[in-house]
Specification:
The structure holds two protein chains of two kinds. By secondary structure, chain A is of the alpha/beta class. Chain A has two domains: about 80-345, Type I PLP-dependent aspartate aminotransferase-like (Major domain) (Aspartate Aminotransferase, domain 2), CATH 3.40.640; about 350-485, Aspartate Aminotransferase, domain 1 (Alpha-Beta Complex), CATH 3.90.1150.10. Helices cover about 35% and strands about 10% of the residues of chain A. Chain A has 15 helices and 13 strands. A seven-stranded mixed sheet of chain A has the order 1-7-6-5-4-2-3, with helices on both faces. A four-stranded antiparallel sheet of chain A has the order 10-11-13-12, covered by helices on one side. Chain A has a two-stranded antiparallel sheet with strand order 8-9. In chain A, helix 4 (about 105-120) packs parallel to helix 9, helix 5 (about 135-150) crosses helix 6 (about 170-175) and helix 9 (about 330-370) packs across helix 12 (about 435-455). Chain A starts with about 45 loop residues before the first helix and ends with a helix. Chain B has two domains: about 65-75 and about 350-450, Aspartate Aminotransferase, domain 1, CATH 3.90.1150.10; about 80-340, 3-Layer(aba) Sandwich (Aspartate Aminotransferase, domain 2), CATH 3.40.640.10. Chain B is of the alpha/beta class. The longest helix of chain B has about 35 residues, at about 335-370. Chain B is globular. In chain B, strands 2-8-7-6-5-3-4 form a seven-stranded mixed sheet, with helices on both faces. The chains are: A alpha/beta, B alpha/beta. Chains A and B meet through helix 1, helix 2, helix 3, helix 4 and helix 5 of A and helix 1, helix 2, helix 3, helix 4 and helix 5 of B.
Chain lengths: ~500, ~450
Amino acid sequence: MTQTLFDASRAGRRNAHHIPEAPATPEGIPERFLRPTPPPLPQVSELQVVRHYTRLSQLNFSVDTQFYPLGSCTMKYNPRACQVLASLPGFLNRHPLASEESGQGVLRCLHELQEMLGEIAGMPGVSLVPMAGAQGEFAGVAMIRAYHRSRGDEARREMLVPDASHGTNPATAAMCGCTVREIPTDAQGDVNLDALRQAVGPRTAGLMLTNPSTLGVFERQVARIAQIVHAAGGLLYYDGANLNAVAGRVRPGDMGFDAVHFNVHKTFATPHGGGGPGAGPVAVSERLVPFLPLPMVKKELDDKGREWFSWMDETQCPESIGRLATFAGNVGVLLRAHIYLRMTGAEGMKRVSGFATLNANYLMARLSAAGFTVAFPGRRATHEFILTLKPEADAFGVSALDFSKRLLEFGIHAPTMYFPSLVPECLLIEPTETETKETLDRFVEAMIAIRHEAETNPQRLLTAPHAVPVPGGGVGRLDATRAARKPDLIWKEMITQ
Amino acid sequence: MPFIPHTPTDIDEMLRSIGVPDLETLFEEIPDPLRCPTLDLPPALGEMAVGRMMRERAETDANGVCFIGAGAYEHHIPAAVWEIAARGEFLTAYTPYQAEASQGTLRLLYEFQTMMAGLTAMDAGNASLYDGASGLGEAVLMAARASDNAGGKILMPASVHPHYRAVVQTMTADQDLEVVEIPFDPLEGRILPKALNRFHGQKIAALVIPQPNFFGILEEVDTLTDWAKAEGATVVAAVNPLSLGLLKPPGHWGQQGADIACGDGQPLGIPLSSGGPYFGFLCCKQALLRQMPGRIVGRTQDAQGRTGFILTLQAREQHIRRAKATSNICTNQGLMTVAASIHLSLLGPEGLAKTAALCHARTRTLVDKLTTIPGVTRLFTGPYFHETALRLPKPAAPILARLARLGIQGGYALGEEHPFHDKGVLVCATETKTEADLQFYADTLAWVLNAKEG
């Protein structure tokens, strides 16, 4: 398939059933405001459109079609019930500024979600507004800065992050006007406490931490870490990317954190959509409640004792860090998370983290028994774990990238590669709780087969994939250097037509 | 009911392979004092029960006939848009980092970038941001970095959507940027070029130009762009993409064109959904490409010379550059760009232009009908696209509340953001409204205004 939709475009081809009757020249808009020529869009039939995009979809790997053990991304099953019920017409067609009276259904759901997330976090305040994890992080760090500022403490502008943290952590700190200081990790995958003690001080705004860490292990000293940072006057931010490992068992609030973001597209099974939309609600400890981003949903009882839900805005929350979205964030995604949690319940949440952990430990044990090298062999895996392919790289001259590309040809999505960068030639593997034992076994067999190939025919790996198994035949390994050297980002023939 | 497939036999075998007696042993590294008791969450429901609960709630959310715009617009969405966009292969894929296993999403994004660049008359576009307001925030930060006058003032017209301005405020609060508000002309409801004169010769990093502005009014984009370019400022256009079927694209504003175009993609096939998910788009001139936030897809080849697509210019992004990235954005609104691409392909150039023209015509008719009611007048005199502000003879908020109970979402009360205009209401009629809908609104409003209080 080499044709773009633009190649199929023919002047004059139109979908009359989508083109309304309208005057050719609009009355009342002076000509200087008008577009002299029509916008360069493809002119194709509805069938051509349907066929083109259906075929495009088939070129993708997805949770619905492949095992997708992508570490740190929690590619679990996205229940269809959540999809269908969040798309009911009453929810889908409501204007964000329509009267609150006409939105009691959706507001009730959002309020329930606030309450449920507060309970899961072990924290008293929740705002659902952030539209992705990174925006949740932004909200968290902005609240931490607002807190210090409210106390007249302008000097606290340094954010501490472990050297293995997600890239969003330092990038967020920078967007919030903080300088970033990295804290090293020790050989067991824990934060180096001595380095932390030396780093904290009167300039410390806080510490951003993921627990379980990005190394796939639980940070056992988290209570000590919280004590050290709090004693120095800083606050603690919990990156909720790995919450699927511990949800329902350990709460960020109980660990001593002051702010947390959830990735509902990870822990609460909303679909990733090829890169979004997700949602990144935040929960906070008592001292950060006044600074939560707006709007939030409030529940009151009216004079007849009926529940009434409404939006809280700047007038009720004058210390808020403000707005992050045009309206109330990714409401449709939040509804999916709400439905998932209503289907899961407290025991179910504990089973989710339990079986996510079982699957990861099983994969780790089997791969280890098969002779692969686990990065932290003395530790339990959490919901994910790290293999290092350094021995294979040294022995056979193949890399983690080559292994990953060859896995694609087995119809398995590659694990996360080269993150965290502390571990050479690493694969971060997260199977999630919704995969069967048979699927996990198949992954182990594929890894063993690929290693055998690395030994006997390394060239096969170095050039993989030749063609990814998708309908119509996929492409081979793509040249990233060529793409970056002379960027070709739009189909220029279309624009210049 | 957490969708776990394990049989008791599976569990036994897996635990044996790991070498632990039970599942709880896997959590032995978690210190006891940190473990929480069972959470206090509502009891788990089966699919049938949760379905019934959600249907009951959705049914209470009656929207009525909607004349609200103010940043989100009701439009016809062809049935094929979400039939295809919701396919599992689009819906349940991750960010296309493994290019060879993500050619569907990547090829689509390349086409999306092309369509958005074409609509805005820019050289390049990214693969989406969260929404219009946060997209403007990113555009302002980008302009501040890239401007010849870096470190100078950011000029922000008060005719920009108040929530957009609020989000820009949140996003720039800790950035040592000076965002200066420019008042709009109370008569015309837009920025008069003379309002800019007092900034002449000062160091101006960027000027934001909304088109149409929050009040639906068309700004004099050519004059404003030329003024800004003469001052050496970067021009950030905040536009409604559907209006670009009809209106002059930012790349053609003034002598040189705007430098950055951003906006909310909601009018392109995205349901209203109480405010999201929508998507933000961001396009720019070639010179600013490496300052762009967000993901960008490029065309390349494999070893056999077959065309393929890949995320590129990643040295701008957080997972590579960490604290020095152009933005912290990671997850964007990918699936919404699938819908928008399908939507634009189905409408084509004529469909988009005609839809925009009909929106304008419907709003004109609505304004004509409503302003025949005694005491109802236009608040501003400037030319408008598909939305405009009216002045009612009484405070707007209670009138709108009464209309809502009669099945009409009658508009947005301007008093919420502009206390001076407590009788002002922003009304919008899109192509979805029939002549009968417009008449129903006019008749009902006349009746409500005449009726005695209470």
